[in-house]
Amino acid sequence: MCKVIHLFTMERLLAINSEADIPAELSKTPAGMLLRYHNFNIPFDKYAQAQLLVGMCMDHRKHLRIPDNFAYIIRTGGANLRYSEFRVSYAIAVGGITSIVLIGHNNCGMVNLMDRRNIFVDGLVKNAGWDRAEAEEHFYHYEPVHEIGDEIDFVSAEAKRIRLRYPKILVTPMLYNVDDNNISIVRE
Predict the structure, then answer these.
(1) 2-111+148-186 is a CATH 3.40.50.300 domain
(2) What pLDDT score was predicted for residue 5?
(3) pLDDT at position 149, please?
């Protein structure tokens, strides 16, 4: 069963192992440059202003290899930009970006949040000094809006949502593999 799930997941991702793997429609875009910088360690160009907006998870296991000033970066649980829309609009309206990449990752903590309920509640009680009832109420109030389900499904759906909101912006969903630090493109 696990093998079937793994193969299905791999079919949903376009691995970027060489420059030839970058789709032609992305090759000359900031998304293509992000893949070159991160996956292939090409030398950095110098940038005076951001070329794209990166929406990615707040997870501490992920670090992008990109030049200074290359991107606005919004880090939020699960690469969920639903509550960061003003910041997205700012990067587009004021920053002039025309490209967004959404980078989810495997083994995301925002998947199956209900399974982490006790850890979450216990952590707020122990580490933040909350009482148990307050911590439980907090969890149950916010869990539904932060649960992302499957990482690939979520980043794909979030890309579609953002495209509808900003129709002139190129939005590319990607997945960061925390095991090998490579980024793949999510096939839609």
Answers:
(1) no
(2) 42
(3) 93
All structural domains of the chain with their residue ranges: 2-111+148-186
**In angstroms, what CA-CA distances link 39 with 10, 66, 173, 184?**
18, 10, 16, 9
Could you tell me the two tokens for 44?
A: 């950095």
pLDDT one-digit tens code per residue, 97-152: 999 999 999 999 999 999 999 999 999 999 999 999 999 999 999 999 999 999 99
Residue type, 87: R
What is the per-residue pLDDT for 2?
43
Query: 73: how many CB neighbours lie within 10 A of its CB?
Result: 15
What stretch of H or E contains 72? strand 71-75
What are 20's two structure tokens? 């030839």
Of 96, 101, 91, 98, the closest CA to residue 22 belongs to 101
Q: What tokens appear for 96 in the block?
A: 């002039």
